[in-house]
Amino acid sequence: MSPEQAQAAMAVQIVSVEPDEAGMRLDRFLSARFPALALTHIQRIVRKGEVRVSGHRAKPSDRLEAGWGIRVPPLRLEAKPAVAGPPSELEEDAAFLRSLVLFEDEDMMVLNKPFGLAVQGGPGLRRHVDGLLESLRDRQGQKPRLVHRLDKDTAGCLVIAKTRFAAAALAKSFRSRSTRKIYWAVVAGVPRVKQGRVSTYLAREEGDETETRMAVAHHGDEGASHALTYYAVVDQAGRKLTWLSLKPVTGRTHQLRAHAAHIGHPIVGDPKYFDIENWELPGGIQNRLHLLARRIVVPHPRTGRPVDVTAPLPPHMQQSFNLLGFDVSRFDPIADAPES
Questions:
Q1: Which residue, 24, 114, 193, 322, is most buried by CB atoms nearer than 10 A?
Q2: How many Cβ atoms are within 10 Å of 17's Cβ, its own excluded?
Q3: What is the per-residue pLDDT across 151-167, written as a single tens digit (0 to 9) for each?
Q4: What are the angstrom distances between the C-alpha of 177 and each of 76, 112, 126, 317?
Q5: Neighbouring C-beta atoms of residue 28, cutoff 10 Å
Q6: Is there a catalytic annotation at residue 275?
Q7: What are 184-220's pLDDT values in tens digits?
Q8: Separation between Cα atoms, residue 167 and residue 156, nearest integer Å
Q9: Which of 93, 107, 151, 270 is catalytic?
């Protein structure tokens, strides 16, 4: 730090929010502007009211708008706390996300999204991947971006872009269907055709706007989109349960869940599409959605070389596989299925 910068830091400053900094959390904004300050110290002076946003007190999590003036008190940038305080919420979020990483480089990462964690916010959802990604903003304030979605109760591979360029390139790969996705599911019963395809139109059912449910529709129906899935039986437990491998060619909302129910073999633990009357869950198996985004193969946004990532079974599916005698090393016949 230059002597001039050090002198400026010892005086009250008014720092303006630039257009590309709009939407940043106040604590992340200050951390980017004053990298010599510990994040915990920044959050402490904000909570004490020493930082003012457009003349008002603010919280560390408040979002900023372009043109706002941030009053910053005199700072002793060389000072470091003698004793580290407890981890901040952002630090805890960052550590949690880091624990989920299956693959990462400077352009992208693939997370092993847990069962029950939403990807984006919605009614009643306070904790979700998109919000947690705030903790991974870089020094320029750039936040990693979602490029596709998984249902809240679907576990497995979730691709995240770390730069604007990577986000655009990865989104294009998903739109052009050059990304290959393989899911594993445990379904009720045993399909008569061991390997096949499901081709339907799907449309959102009318009803409660807070509850999304898709239904098989006809070509030309309002809101109907074509959905295509390949499937194969990997193993079965008698006539009661089947381990299916699924490869969606299209990416419609709830596509795999709706298609499994459509062929008469809904996914175990699916609260929306499991519709077999008087069906009893075998002992020891948890009533949770048994659907895993097992593997994803996506062209790297910069090099174009395939990034091939596999996710482990979530705990409830691992328990079911153990009880049913399913071996994860078994040959998966869908891996080389055609896509056209």
A1: 24
A2: 21
A3: 999 999 999 999 989 99
A4: 53, 21, 32, 28
A5: 24
A6: no
A7: 999 999 999 999 999 999 999 876 555 789 999 999 9
A8: 20
A9: 151
